[in-house]
TrEMBL record:
Organism placement in taxonomy: Bacteria, Pseudomonadati, Pseudomonadota, Alphaproteobacteria, Rhodospirillales
Gene3D superfamilies given in the database record: Nitrogenase molybdenum iron protein domain, Nitrogenase Molybdenum-iron Protein, subunit B, domain 4
Descriptive protein name: Nitrogenase molybdenum-iron protein beta chain
Organism of this sequence: Azospirillum oleiclasticum
Residue stretches making up the Nitrogenase/oxidoreductase component domain: 74-497
Comment on bound cofactor: Binds 1 [8Fe-7S] cluster per heterodimer.
Keywords of this entry: ATP-binding, Iron, Iron-sulfur, Metal-binding, Nitrogen fixation, Nucleotide-binding, Oxidoreductase
The reaction(s) this protein catalyses: N2 + 8 reduced [2Fe-2S]-[ferredoxin] + 16 ATP + 16 H2O = H2 + 8 oxidized [2Fe-2S]-[ferredoxin] + 2 NH4(+) + 16 ADP + 16 phosphate + 6 H(+)
């Protein structure tokens, strides 16, 4: 190199600055010329411009053989998330070590919290002959080393392709005394090549409840007045689950959150190591069979599980991410209906404060155009709240969204004058969203961290409000459900809008006539 090295032991430069130094600029240019053999900058710019056209959008939406940046993760991540919401539970991935490392990393990057899980360490021989021996040894080691109260087993692609029988393998392992016969080892088949993380969550939840509720209904045991709540896969679970508990306390309701991850993904740094923290107790999980009703906070996360609860004689109710005034109203009225308890006066005051906050700020939201992407339930809840605030949701996209989901979104849009320009896109990905944002631009984008590439490409400001959020910290500690949660979301959206207003008016002598102190 023709330049001296900028970094030394005495002068450590952050990578964001280091790679802008002359020697690295020269290195990158040589790499481009000598090794990449790409197209000219002119050709790249020409093709890039074409991908922003209506002509390209038609071709983009016609593709069938490839998915580009979907708004979903794979089934085992959802299964791991569900399992970690139960007391002393060790997730056990029947598959390779690399798979479990990915799932753990994905959750850790969002929650900034380590999470424990093991695998059966399947390799090439297990792929040919089956993973029974891996299961026998793996369960024995996991039980002996990590002292869990429950081991929740689920699969990866490899185990599903060769057709391993989890139920049979687990029983064989128990017969070999890997774990005691009465030790709880629920399981779920979670092939990563179909469905998504919300499917895996549903499969694991049903697997765990089926294990504890497996016996025929004991009709001599009367139903209790307790209510079960299933939160679903939720990146804001730490804040939302605690908000639910607060609501139950105000109501005086005996409620059980089935899969409560709030402590496991928010353990304190107090000098005590907790491999397992919090979670729904196994005793409460067993007793939940006799609850009066089970409520799902996210319909599309719990399709099978809620049907299973219904078959056990429970009343069931389902919501679509209860965010905003009307959605919270419906949740509280359902709780009141099921329990016979009046909605607490304190919650009525919270509702009024939220309505007041929306009224204070609606002028900044009115007429703003939004694109929204994420899980089906999140998109429904977010769209509904935007319409309440007088904003205009234009592109609503979910890779896991079905035709039924599209109809639900369309019904929401048709029910408001602010939804007339909106459309739902189920089964589409973020490359589809890119086309939509270039041909029909919006003011703001709501989604997860992967939207930052769309933000850079389309110059549309991103508001991070769903899982995963990798590049910002601690959002998951604040609720998005209930009146208080809706207020948090309102503030997040407003902050981005007002920051944008400052950015657009900060040029001295040219635009700063609108650089207002009060907005």
């Amino acid at each position: 190199m023709s330049h001296p090295v900028s970094q030394s032991a005495d002068k450590v430069i952050d990578h964001m600055t280091l790679f802008r130094q002359p020697e690295y600029k020269e290195l990158f240019e040589r790499k481009k010329v000598e090794f990449e053999f790409g197209h000219s900058d002119e050709k790249v710019a020409e093709v890039s411009a074409w991908t922003k056209t209506k002509e390209y959008q038609e071709k983009n939406f016609a593709r069938e053989a490839v998915t580009i940046n979907p708004t979903k993760a794979c089934q085992p991540i959802g299964a791991m998330f569900a399992a970690q919401g139960f007391e002393g539970t060790l997730p056990f991935v029947h598959g390779s070590q690399g798979c479990v490392a990915y799932y753990r990393t994905h959750l850790t990057r969002h929650f900034k919290e380590p999470n424990s899980a093991v695998s059966s360490s399947m390799t090439e021989d297990a792929a040919v002959f089956g993973g029974l021996n891996n299961m026998i040894d793996g369960l024995a080691n996991a039980h002996s080393l990590y002292k869990p109260k429950m081991i929740a087993v689920f699969t990866t692609c490899m185990a599903e392709v060769i057709g391993d029988d989890l139920g049979g393998f687990i029983q064989n392992a128990k017969n070999k005394e890997s774990v005691p016969q009465d030790f709880p080892v629920p399981h779920a088949h979670t092939p990563a090549f179909v469905g998504s993380h919300i499917t895996g969550y549903d499969n694991m939840m049903k697997g765990i409840l089926s294990y504890f509720w497996a016996k025929e209904e004991d009709f001599e045991t009367p139903k209790t007045q307790s209510i079960n709540i299933i939160p679903g896969f939720d990146g804001f679970a730490v804040g939302n689950n605690r908000e639910l508990k607060r609501l139950f306390g105000l109501f005086g309701i005996d409620a059980t959150i089935l899969s409560d991850v709030s402590d496991n993904f928010d353990t304190p740094a107090d000098g005590e190591y907790r491999m397992y923290d919090g979670g729904t107790t196994l005793e409460a999980t067993k007793a939940a069979q006799h609850a009066k009703a089970t409520i799902s906070m996210q319909e599309y996360n719990t399709t099978q599980t809620l049907q299973f609860c219904k078959e056990k004689g429970q009343d069931v109710a389902k919501f679509n991410y209860p965010l905003g005034v009307a959605a919270t109203d419906e949740l509280l009225m359902k709780l009141s209906e099921l329990t016979g308890k009046a909605i607490p006066a304190e919650l009525r005051l919270e509702r009024g404060r939220l309505v007041d906050a929306v009224a204070d700020s609606h002028t900044h939201l009115h007429g703003k155009r939004f694109a929204v992407y994420g899980d089906p339930d999140f998109c429904l809840g977010m769209t509904r709240f935007l319409l309440e605030m007088g904003a205009e949701p234009v592109h609503i996209l979910s890779t896991s969204g079905s035709k039924k989901w599209e109809k639900q979104v369309k019904k929401l849009l048709d029910g408001s004058p602010f939804g007339k320009n909106g459309a739902a896109y189920g089964g589409k990905d973020l490359w589809h969203m890119r086309s939509l944002m270039f041909t029909d631009p919006v003011d703001y984008l709501i989604g997860n961290s992967y939207g930052k590439y769309l933000e850079r490409d389309t110059k549309t400001p991103l508001i991070r409000l769903t899982y995963p959020i990798f590049d910002r910290h601690h959002h998951h500690r604040y609720p998005t459900w209930g009146y208080q949660g809706a207020l948090n979301v309102l503030v997040r959206i407003l902050d981005r809008i007002l920051e944008d207003a400052d950015r657009q008016t900060d040029e001295v002598g040219k635009t700063d006539y609108s650089f207002d102190l009060i907005r």
